Structures are given as structure tokens and as C-alpha cells.
Amino acid sequence: MEYFKLNNGEKMPALSFGVFDIKPKDTKEAVLKALDTGYRSIDTAQIYYNEKEVGDAINESDFSRDDVFLISKNWVSNAGYDKTMKGFNKTLENMQTDYLDLFLIHQPFGDYYGSYRALQDLQKEGKILSIGLSNFYPDRLIDLVMNNDIVPQVNQVETTPYFQQLESHEIMEKYGVRHQAWGPFSEGMDNLFENPILKEIADKNSKSTAQVILRWLHDRGIASACKSTREDRMKENIDIFDFKLTSEDIEKIKELDTGKSPFLDHTAPETVEEFNEEIL
Ligand SMILES: NC(=O)c1ccc[n+]([C@@H]2O[C@H](COP(=O)([O-])OP(=O)(O)OC[C@H]3O[C@@H](n4cnc5c(N)ncnc54)[C@H](OP(=O)(O)O)[C@@H]3O)[C@@H](O)[C@H]2O)c1
Asked: Which CATH number characterizes residue 235's domain?
């Protein structure tokens, strides 16, 4: 596994194993397989309802807590200082640990300034080694950075060949925030795995399209959280450190960018309303 350095001197694994949409009853087994395969970072969230099973897997594995980089995220219903503190303590209890490597504000809605003050205090107490955000686009990211003492270490945003986040990435680089990609395969939507440009680059390197996507992110300095419940694909997705893309490959992949998410637009009025309804 390779690592990326964060702006506070900590380092995070280049690839995390994501457990979104893995049922609690299947999570322990999936995480144990992922650890066996070589993943050293697990990405969960309060809203995935499987934090406890991730903790169970770490306890049952041959790895000690310190060998694994644990990420969770504060859900919007816990926005605000006090609720974030309470929610974070529940996360620690679920995950059966006394610290997290990275804790993110999951969505930029509600009183996330209060949440971010809580994260900064928890970091000062040593309960969170690195703090960060998720789904913060440039406007909200810049405003948060300019109104707080601590620059977040990470911002996890949807990033795929179809939605490359070129402007967001530049802004994160400018402020020293590590970009982490979620859903790098767009869950296979729009035939991503069969895309002819990606397939051509994959064939040339004797790799799969999934490996080309993860390598392309890695070469941009972007950490990724990806998921497969299949052991062969877990292995495939982690086997990306023995090849490199050329500048021509990168130019070709740039042509695939649509500039928008196939899932949801975080800036659309209905999205803002929908997330805020979860707080009420
Ligand atoms: N911060 C956020 O708001 C947010 C939002 C969404 C996701 N995330 C994080 O990002 C992680 C990844 O996102 P995701 O789970 O939505 O989707 P993803 O990793 O983009 O795609 C997962 C899908 O791709 C398939 N797949 C994986 N590897 C493959 C391969 N090598 N070849 C062919 N198919 C492959 C999987 O099927 P099989 O399981 O059958 O292999 C699954 O259907 C999540 O688990 C979560 O940790 C964060």
C-alpha cells in the first residue's frame, strides 16, 4: 500500500475500502477479506449503519487497531457542536476504539460550522488524528477554510472519469486539503467499465479499466475509497502500484469529463431541501 501525506504530517493509505451499502450482516466478512487482501483503511459513516461491524472485524482480525486507518463521517442529523460531540462518542463506542484516524463532516448542510468546531476540539484532545469534510464544493470549502483556525486535512468528494472535479481539485491543492475520491467507478453507471478509451489504456498496460481509473486518481494525488464485495475484485483494485499512465493517457481521459454527477447535484435547491429535512 502507498500513502499520501496530509497537511498535519499524518499519512493516509492511498486506497480505502468503502463499506457503503454493505449490509451490517455482511460487513464483518467483507472487511476481514479486505484486510487480508492488503487494504489498511476502512471508510464507513454513521449513516451506513455498519460502524459496529467494522469494529468487530478489526477486533477479530490479526491486525492491531493502530495498523488500520479508520474513517467515519458525521451525518447531517448530527449537525451542530453538541450533536456532533454526542454522535462522535457513539461512533467510537460502535467502532470499539478510543480514537479515529479521520472523521469527516458528511454533507455541507445544517450547522456544519458548529460541527467543524467540535472536530477541531476533538482533534486537539487527540480523539481524531485528522479531520475533514465530504461533499464540500469550492464555495463552501473556501468559506470554511477562511473562517477557521485549522485547515481540514481531507475533502472526500465524488470523483470519476465522468466527473473529474478539475476545479475542486485545484482549490483543494491551493489550500493544502487532500482530495479523496468517493465512488470512483460511479457504481458502473453509463457503462464506465466498458468505456472504449479506458479499455484501450487498460489493454495497453495489461490492466483492467477499474485499475486504470484508480491509477489515474492516484497519479493526480487523489486518495480513493472504492468498494467490491468480491475478493477477486478487491485484489484487482489494490493492484495498481506497478504501472503509470502517460500524459497522453491522461489527456484522453480528460475527454470523458461531463462536469456533473450521475447521482446528485449538491448545489441544486431540491438537494439542499432534502438534506435539511433530515435535520428537522
Ligand atoms: N462521502 C460520500 O458522500 C460517499 C458517497 C458514496 C460513497 N462513498 C464511499 O465511497 C465508497 C465507494 O463508493 P461506492 O461503493 O458507491 O461505489 P464504487 O466503488 O464506485 O463502485 C462499486 C461498484 O463497482 C463494482 N466493482 C468494484 N470493483 C470492480 C471491478 N474491479 N470490476 C468491476 N466492477 C467492480 C462493485 O460491484 P461488486 O461488489 O459486485 O464487485 C460495485 O457495484 C463507498 O463504499 C463509501 O465508502 C462516500
From this structure: 3.20.20.100
pTM: 0.97
Name which of 139, 10, 144 is nearest 69 in CA terms.
Answer: 10
**Number of domains within the chain:** 1
Structural domain boundaries enclosing 233: 3-277
Q: Is 262 in the pocket of ligand 1 (CB under 6 A)?
A: no
Contact, 153 vs 10, CB < 8 A?
yes
In the predicted structure, residue 136 carries a pLDDT above the cut 80 = yes
List CB contacts of 176: < 8 A, sequence separation 6 or more.
7, 151
The string of pLDDT tens digits covering residues 96-134 is 999 999 999 999 999 999 999 999 999 999 999 999 999
Residue corresponding to grid cell 464483518: 28
Ligand 1 centroid–CA 149 distance in Å is 34
Residues 169 and 257: their CA atoms lie apart, in Å, by 14
d(CA 254, CA 179): 18
